[in-house]
Batch of 2 targets.
Target 1
Amino acid sequence: MSRLVVVSNRVAPITEGEPAAGGLAVGVLDALRAEGGLWFGWSGEVSNDAEPMPNPGRDVGRITIRTIDLSRKDYDEFYRGFANGTLWPVLHYQMGLARFDWTEFAGYRRVNHLFACSLAPILRQDDLVWAHDYHLLGLAAALREAGSAQRMGLFLHTPFPEPGVLMTIPAHAELVRDMAAYDLIGFQTEPDRTAFADYIRRHAGGEDAGDGRLRAFGRAFRTGVYPIGVHVAEARAEAELPANRRQALRLRANLHGRGLILSVDRLDYAKGLRQRFLAFERFLIATPEMHGQVIFMQIAPPSRSDIQTYREIREELEGEAGRINGRFADVDWVPLRYLNRSFPRAALMPLYAEARVGLVTPLRDGMNLVAKEYVAAQDPEDPGVLVLSQFAGAARELEAALIVNPYDEAGIASALGQALAMSIEERRGRHAAMLDVLRANSLDAWRDRFVADLRG
Ligand code: GDG
């Protein structure tokens, strides 16, 4: 059987016998562990050399890890520049926060070529190449230029925006032409796939041959929808494991029976944290009887902190948290707990299980695994309520959540009231419906379907 070669911007630090950190890493590792394979990507190191040499390969069980370092110029133009300064905001419909610079776009393409030049010589003829995410839209095109003819697939973890939004990036045509060099492009939801197909038809002179097949730029390729999932039973088991519950028990003792609203997000403007803080404030204004009865805890590990827009959102949130607490706190109650730090994954699941409400309100999100983990971690006999943004990919599947518009502070405030007052029968019913969907669209199903379609 053909070997699986996974390419992602970062190769997650993995150690044999230890669980991996996040959704992508878990999904990729499962795939590689099952059949063995190669994982290729950036080491996370920025080198002082202008042209760093590839690092020596390393085997972890049946997985071979190959990494390259980036030069300072690559890091600035590719990673901080086009990938996270242009693509990330535009893919999340935040055009006002995006910048564009042709030099950075050239740097983005250069790094895609750098990946391709290091990878092409170690590829075997019948390898399957599975690239991940918005950093590598140009990898297949670069590999083809380097003479690689293997089957290549891309899974985009972010949303794909409507053509008018994508076209705010001056290099949109080059980007999409590069993407067409893949044999399979996977999206999180049908609207993402449709937006891409619309662009191909209306702006790239291509055609839609039906059944996800597209033709453009002299190539035929496939698109499909593969909603990423979670390991459902594992999340619940981790939530119940005594060794994981240390923090959760401390939290419970400290809540004194107050209802907990919990949010967990990388500190990113696309996650809608500011609007969420204001919605919580709106809730406190509207329900004085809940003062002293409820606590909102926001866990927000810092992310991409060397990018200006990310520093700004961090300062802004610190200001808002202080202001809201200053306005409402009492001698024995502080309504908002803002934790600007990360937790071990194992400790997160029991924290989800403690929360009466999981508040997940991104402005846009490809999927949002926190929403799915929150549901999976609940006790089915006494589950909490998920309040979920209509603009998270997860809302396409988790229809039994309380669906809100993340820009509607009053709407979120009212959903919080509804969630906190919900009867146990209704909570159980909604939770069971969501659990069914999570089981059907598990992380295993995501990986197996993508790899099977890529094998084609
Ligand atoms: C991208 C897309 C898509 C969070 N805090 C901690 C921690 N986490 C873990 C969560 C979850 C993961 O990180 C975050 O996943 P999300 O899906 O919520 O968001 P992104 O990071 O933006 O992921 C997204 C995803 O890719 C997969 O395709 O769903 O739309 O943007 O698993 O649990 N993990 C640990 N400590 C923390 O403090 N260990």
Target 2
Amino acid sequence: MNSKLFDKKLGVIGGGQLGKMLLAECNKMSITTHVIDSSEKSPCKNLCSKFYFGDLNDYNTILNFGRDCDIITFEIEHINVDALDELEKMGKKVYPRPDTLRVIQDKNQQKNFFKNNEIPTSDFKYFKCLDHLAIAIDKNEINFPCVWKKTKFGYDGFGVKVLKSLVDIETLPDSEMIIEEFVPFEKELSVIVARNPSGEIKCYNTVEMEFNKDSNQVEYVISPANISDTINKRAQDLAIRLSNSLDSIGLLAVEMFLTNNSILVNELAPRPHNSGHFSIEACQSSQFQQHIRAIFNLKLGETNHLGSAIMLNIVGSEGYSGKVYYENLDHVFKSKFSNLHLYGKEETRPNRKMGHVTIICDKFEDSYEKAKFLKETIKVKSK
Ligand code: ADP
């Protein structure tokens, strides 16, 4: 590499679809990349300069992986943060910083961070185990409905449950938890913000996430969200405040609830995010390009876009597990302004994220109609 810009080796912890899309941007600029994943069938395996297979929660595995890299980033939160601390002490650039990840890895710490920094969020209580929760219920300190969240290792709604009454507690696993007040929100919003070590900061549009009622998984991401300019600005301001107060480097996705014209922050993700995939086709700098710019301390790219972009997730259909087989994918190519992404996962299972489609039209109604049609038409089955 002749340019000094990218003469550093980038280590990426996690080799799923987010890693794959990050590598697509790295490969454009011929950045040397090392990737580690817990599956030998990682979609990143053949797209990086060097692939490692190992346990992302094992201290020595992460330490040894990072030793050989100059800048280290991650596309998944559930990794050994003590090893990241050690790598930082060795002089490696670890972005987002291990301190930021430590706060986000634990939902109790994350909520306390919101409280201490006067970030609006729903009320919550922490419990060490189910016995302690039972005592609080006996004392009438818990109101139903409420939301149970495992403090660690939850993802995509696993580790979250709405508790309607006492009966629902019987099925909970015995682990550390928070119990949140139930928020009757109008919309779920997300803002992706990027910040580089020089302190430059840029947000994407506030987007709206529409969830599937049965699986409680994000079905559509709509950019820009159908909200007023004032709400858009308030959501972006909150994301900027959070990014600054965490001293976050790289991308930070901020998920929020919109209720009655007030905004509550739900949770953070310090990495590229499903709610930012629209930016690949819609924006001059995608979230992946932006993340690279941020962690290499380069000037951040443009985030605005024209028209209405809708991303729909292609997930495994109910009732099918095993070697994947897609039905009706050709409709994406028949639908003008639609872009297909498949993540290259060999096996499907119900609701597993297998790919996505981004549709960009001048008008929201047109992109939404196309998105609904494709969602109903494409099926992800197993043979
Ligand atoms: P995960 O980390 O698994 O994505 P979240 O905290 O984002 O978990 O919760 C998953 C979903 O559960 C949210 O997108 C929202 O639909 C619902 N949810 C979470 N917290 C609350 C709450 N306090 N009130 C109402 N619904 C909630």
